[in-house]
Amino acid sequence: xxxxxxxxxxxxxxxxxxxxxxxxxxxxxxxxxxxxxxxxxxxxxxxxxxxxxxxxxxxxxxxxxxxxxxxxxxxxxxxxxxxxxxxxxxxxxxxxxxxxxxxxxxxxxxxxxxxxxxxxxxxxxxxxxxxxxxxxxxxxxxxxxxxxxxxxxxxxxxxxxxxxxxxxxxxxxxxxxxxxxxxxxxxxxxxxxxxxxxxxxxxxxxxxxxxxxxxxxxxxxxxxxxxxxxxxxxxxxxxxxxxxxxxxxxxxxxxxxxxxxxxxxxxxxxxxxxxxxxxxxxxxxxxxxxxxxxxxxxxx
Length: 300
What we know:
Elements: E1 4-10, H1 16-23, E2 29-34, H2 37-52, H3 60-75, E3 85-89, H4 97-104, E4 110-114, H5 117-131, H6 139-142, H7 150-157, H8 163-176, E5 183-187, H9 188-193, H10 195-206, H11 226-229, H12 248-251, H13 264-270, H14 281-287
Parallel strand pairs: 1-3, 1-4, 2-3, 4-5
């Protein structure tokens, strides 16, 4: 059965795992943990010329597209599985939307989970403090001196080659390249305060009939090996969806206010600041490179 494939991306610590498990209550929807299919599709695309480089005929591009489409569909084609809709979760998709659309044969639809950057950093800080005596994060060796202070840890995480800064830059890149119409922003604060309205907006974006979700008891059905990520407890969710108070003032302090303007990126997008435009072939090819362009800067 051919499935309708969508994507979940965005910032870490912003409710993507919660959203996956909430959507999975709908029997028509399958959601994934952090997926590797993006790497598989990317590898097929990149290696095609190396493997079939001597084949130069008009159908070569069509052959590659057909194989990539087949890989994407077959990856989710499990025997006996009658889910009509699949959400593949990977922050990488926003950096390679053109590749997603090559695999789908249509415009992609991406649920982009976001949260106040200060609370994203505070959430990582809380996990680090909880596990510091028993489990070291990968950044501790690479940025030993910076990692000694809370300010340094936040600055490291906001680097473009690190988990928070890289995710932020992918959102920025997708918006700046005219992909706003592919993206539906799911704000963590609104999802936890008003999940019913949040889920209604998601179904409207997808063009799917609304499902009656249970926000009081969200069973966790997607699991990840958090030890592979280097942070135990990274993807464990709360069963009941309820408002979460900002934690950054207690954990980070006033210095974290320097990150507050970064939140304007998706707030401007939600307000219609970014326009959707068609991507040129050159822009499409550039998107394959993922994170490119200037350093992190805040919209004004």
